[in-house]
Amino acid sequence: MNRLLAVVTATAALLVPLGAAAASAQAEPTTPLRPAEIKRGPNPQVPYVKGTTIIDGDRRIKVNAGRIGLHGTAGPSAYIVGASSASGENRRLLRVAADGTTRVLLRADLRALSTVLVADDGARIAYLSAEGRRKSTVKVLSAVTGGLQYQRSFSGWTSLHDVDGRRLLATVWGNNGPRTLIWRLGGTNRTVVFKDAYTGDLSANRVAFYSKDPYQGGCSVLTRISRPADRIWRSCRDRIEPASPDWSRLMTVGLLDDGLGSRAITMRTGTGRALRTFTVDGWFDLSEWEDNRTILVVTHGEHWTATIRCTASSCNRASKLTRTVWP
Q1: Is residue 216 exposed (0-12), middle (13-18) or buried (19+ Cβ within 10 Å)?
Q2: Which of 181, 168, 69, 70 is CA-nearest to residue 124?
Q3: Closest CA to 279 of 247, 259, 257
Q4: Torsion of CA 265, 269, 273, 278, to 10 degrees
Q5: Residue 314: how many CB atoms within 10 A of its CB?
Q6: What confidence score (pLDDT) does residue 259 get?
């Protein structure tokens, strides 16, 4: 899964050590994040969108659209971008080159575009072209031309977790319940586990699933794709959202957190040991790993909002402050 991440090292002088609350002897220190009180650091060191402009280091690429969202990168000099008019019409998936040249890869509705995955090598994209209780259809396209490379239908609701050059990881809800499987592109399926997975990574050999419906007492279980019976971590309180690129760090939220967002998030090791919990007098929104130890979290405080960069020991602010808009 293309995470839009590059391995970078934050400048030590710009990462502010966490204070007294963090220095406690408790096993899981808790740090409140108040955007206006956090020292300004560098901008995000991964590609991101501001308005209708892609920002990647010193590179600025204006996209001719009313709204855009970044799905992934296609090599070092191209981006996979969802675009629409300002009113949300004319939805399409674009390949945007560093020089601003664009190619339409796909025209589809919001539902289909929301399922797009970009392979780590940037060569392919996968999405659900149709989804329903009886049948769902997965299509795999070239990320260069948009040409159809593979297509397969599954019996039941389907969710996509990851795709690489040869395989796709998905969960299918059929008449007999959920089944998480690997589809070898152009070939056969192999069942990983008869459970409902919610995230996974083929290159890291990881999949996380619910032992049963979390609203009926189910728990989150992290295992290896190759050996799903060997449990790495289990929690009946938290779920993973998201993991670092190599899965050596996990960010977790409440198992049933939904809607507005979480008020508390926890950074953990890849085996689930809690390193630090962050809280906010508002809610946490989108988060993205900047590298395998550093996460960027959109933090909505009571009065101010900003993107905050944190490791397990230090935080700084990666964006300007804006007024928090409560729904």
Answers
A1: exposed
A2: 168
A3: 257
A4: -20
A5: 18
A6: 80
- CB-CB contact of 240 with 208 (8 Å): yes
pLDDT in tens, 167-223: 999 999 999 999 999 999 999 999 999 999 999 999 999 999 999 999 999 999 999
Question: 4 in a domain, yes or no?
Answer: no
CATH number at residue 270: 2.130.10.10
Q: Domain range for residue 113?
A: 12-323
Evaluate whether 270 touches 26 at the Cβ level (below 8 Å).
no
* Other CB atoms within 10 Å distance of the CB of residue 294: 24
Residue 1 lies in a domain: no
pTM equals: 0.89
Residue 44 domain-assigned? yes
Domain count, the chain: 1
Confidence band, pLDDT 50/70/90 cuts, at residue 64: very high
Give the type of residue at 31. T
The pLDDT tens digits of the residues spanning 258-271 come to: 888 999 999 999 99
Looking up tokens 């406690």 gives 24
